[in-house]
Each structure stands twice: as C-alpha cells, then as structure tokens.
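Q: Could you write out the predicted structure for this multi-component system? I'm mainly interested in how the pieces pack against one another.
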Amino acid sequence: MEVTVKLFATLRNGRFKTETRCYAPGTTVQQIAEDLKIPLAELSLTLLNGQAALPEQVLTEGDTLALFPPVGGG
Amino acid sequence: MSSIAGKILRVNLTDGSIKHEALSPGLAREFLGGRGLGGKMLSDEIRAGIDPLGKENKIFFVTGPLTGTSAPTGGRYMVVTKSPLNNAIASSNSGGFWGAELKFAGYDMLIVEGRAKEPVYIYIRDNQVEIRPAGKLWGMTTSQVTDALLTEAGDRKARVLNIGPAGENLSRIASVMNDRWRAAGRSGVGAVMGAKNLKAIVVRGSGKVEAAIQERFKEAVSSSLKKIKENGVTGQGLPAYGTAILVNIMNEHGIYPTNNFQLGVFPQAEETSGETLAEKYLKKKDPCFRCPIACGRYCSVDGEEGGGPEYETVWAYGADCGISDLKAIIRANNVCNEMGLDTISAGATIAAAMELYQRGRIRPEELDGAPELTWGNGEAIVEWTRKMGRAEGLGAKLALGSARLCEAYGMPELSMTVKKLELPAYDPRGVFGHGLQYATANRGGCHVRGYMISPEILGSPEKLDRFTLDGKAEWVKIFQDLTAVIDSLGICLFTSFALGAQDYTDLYNAATGENFSVDELLACGDRIFNNERLFNLAEGYTAKDDTLPKRLLEDPMPDGPSKGYVHPLDKMLPKYYEIRGWSADGVPTAPKRQALRL
C-alpha cells in the first residue's frame, strides 16, 4: 500500500520532508518510525490523517502520517 | 539590592514631579510582582470609567522578583495600564534587556502619570531621573529613536524603550517597543504612552540583584537550567527553529486560521514555516537577557535585517492574509517593529480588511492607489502596515483595530476578536480548551494567558483530547493561574515547557526568602486573575463578553482535520464559572473574594 509520510523540524535531518512510500498492509505507526530510524524518544506528536495516533495504530492505503519531534512556542 | 528592590519610581508628566516611594511588602507578597502587582496597584489608583487616553490613566512598567536575577529568562517586565483598545486591564509582557536594567537602576517599577504638554522622554540612571524634551524625536521610527537616544546618552549600554509613530498617532493596536524589536505588543499600550506625550524611557543601572537565600537560589537556578536544556522543546525545537516551528503543526491539525478564519488549513504553510525561515532567512539567534532558550530570530531579506518574525506574526501576515511570500511577511514584521504596532493585531486587522474588500464593503477607490487588499498580496501587507503606523487615509481606520474597522463597515461579525482584541493563530473550533481560555482571558482574545495548546495539541505536560469537554474547565483555570504567577515573577512563559509549579516556587522562595508552598503560590495566581476580572467588571464588562466571534460558534470548520466542528463555548462556561468560584453571571462571589482577600 502507498502512504504519504511527512516529517517536520529536526526529524527532517538526514531524511526528507514528504514522501509517498510503500509498506505492507497492516504496517503500524511504530513500524514506520522504526523503518525511518526515528527513536521513539525523539517522536513527540504523531498525526494520522490529522488526528492524534497511537504507535500501534495500523495504516491503510492512501493515509497521511505526520511525525513531529517535541515542539512548542506561542 | 534584594530581588524585590522595595522601591517605586513615580513620574508625573503634568507637574514634572519625580518621586521615590517604598513598595508595600504586603502587596508584593500577595501579588508577587509584574502583572499581579501592577494590576493590583492600577486597580487601586485609577477610577473606573476614566478615558484610557486621558491624563487620569496611568502606565506601569513593572519587573518581577526574578527580573535581573540569574534565573533563566529573568529579564521580563510588564506594561500595565487601562487598555485604549477595549477599556479592560492591559498587561503586556516583554523580554529583551530593558526590564532587567530598570531593576539594576534600583526600581521594582516605574509609574508614569499625567500628560506632558510637549513630547518628552524619561532618562533614568540609578537615582538620577530627568524628564527631557523629545520634540525632535517625535515622528521617528523606533530604531531611529533608539539610535538617537543612545547617542545622546553617550552610553551604548543604556537600554531604550519607546513608541513609534503608531503610538504617537494613538493607534489602538500600538505596542511599546524595547531593545529595538522586543515588544509589549498587545492591548494598545503604546497609545497610552503617545497620549501622555511620552516618546521613550532610557534606563541605565549599576546595581546588582542578590537572592535572599543565595545557596538555595543557585541550586534552584541550576536545576531549572538543567531541565530547560534537557527538554526537547526548550533545548532543541525552539533554539533551532524559533516559535515559527508551530506553523506546520497547527496547519496539520487543521487549526491554522486562513483568510481571516474562513478556513483552517493553509496549503502553502510550508513556505512560511519555521523550517523554511531557518533554511533561507535566519541570520542568527537573538536571545533575551539570561535566556538559555534563544527562540528569538534575527533575519535578513535582500539586505534588510531585523528581529523576528515570531510564529504569531508569520501567521497573522501569512495564512490569515492568504500570503505565502515569507519575504513579504518578514518585511511587514520589520515595518511593525519600526512603527510600533502589535504584529498580531496589525496582521489580523489587515486580514479583516481583506475580507471586507472581498465582500465589497471596502471599495477600490478608498485605497488611494495603495496595493489592493486581496488575499495573497504581499505588497499590500507591507504598505498597509506602514499606512497604519502613519495613520494615512484608510490606514488610520485600520490602526484602530479590526473591531472598530468592521463595525464602521457594518459587518462587526468579520472581526475575529474577543473583547476587541484580535485572536491569535489557533482556530478554537479544533481546540476546545483553548477557545474557553480565549473567551475568559482578562485582556481579551489572547493565547498566552493559559496556553491550552500545550496539553491539547503539543502533549505537554500530558496529551488531552482536543475535542473533549471533560476536565477542560479545570485545566484552563490551573493554566491561567500558573501563567499569572509566571507573568508576575519576571521570567518567560516558555520556561513552562520544561518547568513545573514546584520549580517556580523554589525559585521564588530562594529569591525572596519567603516560604510559600506550591498551593500558596498558585493561590497568588488565582488572586491576580480575579483582581483583573474585578477591574473589568467595574469597567462594565459582563458574562456576555466572555464569548467568541460568531463564525467560530456557528459556522462549522469547512475543511481539514477539524472539519465539521464549531466551538461549544456555552457548554463549557458554566462549569468554568463554578470552578472559579464565580456566580452564574461570571462574578466572583463574596466568599471567593474573601478567600482571596480581594
């Protein structure tokens, strides 16, 4: 299946901004983070199609996954 | 000197008197400093109903007990006055170095009263205080004034606070600027200085601030610094990208107000993000006094340099005006700083003007040949900001803020304001607790009086469901009270990404020699918040004013991840009032006032 993965802030270093990537059906958020070699400790916010997602959540064809490190501001 | 210097400087511009007064230790204990102490003294010293631009209004420049100490970010001060934007209590916070310098000169606060006959500035060098003519400075932009006064002082280490042309022209959204591009931005505080014919305040101090219990203070500072450095937000995200790191996050959540809150997603957000800013235009970081975070930016565009822009500015001049040209946003930010305008209110007012233009209310012939007020027009935001600062043509109407502008054009519902203060960069239809905080913040539509974005979006200190109502009223109250404490101590709100109430209590106790518990310190926050509420009630505010723009209450979000939601404010306010100890009409009850000694 194809999913769009978006990375932000420091997670882009050595990786990419946005990519359409192929994964096996049943792939979870955590497996994608592992595939991208993003330690869970560096991952603060995970959005699946704009809604907060858990590490064990399974992706489906056409989903958009956005991954953020700890961020703040105001 | 002690962390609380115990001294007030009072300058009356009508009769030219300059007084040194003792600070009441009892008041300092109950209201801490900064926003709290200034708010209490303002409430006590001015009558309800006075003209905020009249000589009866007073303007307080107030440090906190941690200002000028070695506490991380200990350089903050507050400008407290009655707001000419909305008649509510105004307390605008700023960083830079000016606040710490006022403390070094020996003062907890400066109070300015009355009105000078001619333009003046105040010069402070420790005990030497003078009211000096400023006729030749009138009309100058903020950097011109700063350069002129530093030259006149013959001391490059002096610190300058001033207003730009916007404050002189009594723009209701004029800021007070210090150290060139640090702003006490909100509520139109710059117009109060303008109305007093007060162009600037130069300060230079030679004192040193010492904590009451020095070893304990060192330990508290060291522990706080460690937490700030090790925290992902304050140790990495903010230093690397500044506050504009939030652009993509809010956009991905569908709460990034676009085209004056007509939409919640801005397709070109990436082009204006903190990441893009860092990659293309960031020249250096620009930290405030004793700040280990250094979120401040210093950017360069085609040879033009200056401080900022912040997230809120990038949004107000960016998505809110449909603009993806980051160069234009940076230039508009620079014009705001030079004119002395609040970047949130100025950008959001131009966005409102663009919607009035879209709907045919503002007519092309009113533009006097200036760039068209169309979504996405980068030239328009730069030129219309300049015209606002100089009060030229239609720019004079914009300079009064979006509430007055939209009212004048018969469409008050297009003003995205609460209590006439322009809302910041988060659409509350997708963050329910944050919307409740907008509706109840004492100065009006403000994000930094209880930043519910932290738990509802960023997951700090824990992740809350942004669409649930459960527990939100309690969270808002605690965040508002803790923020009132931080705003009164003289340090930066951003420390709260890494520090908790116990850390602030440790710092405060060691600095002052007090022995407050966490609960006692938070009770001070509750007292400070309620004092502000009472000020506003005396000015005629009622529960009806605790609201949000109609669009956010009635029109479902049309697009993105927050699609279909409106803000459920009416379901949240009763619980909030109850938790606050207020009546169903939003009035602090007698037992509540008694408990807080108000």
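A: Regarding packing and overall arrangement: Chain B touches chain A at residues 231-234, 236-238, 240-246, 248-249, 252-254, 270, 274-275, 295, 311-312, 447-448, 451, 453-454, 457-460, 463, 465-466, 493-494, 497, 560-562 (CB under 8 Å).
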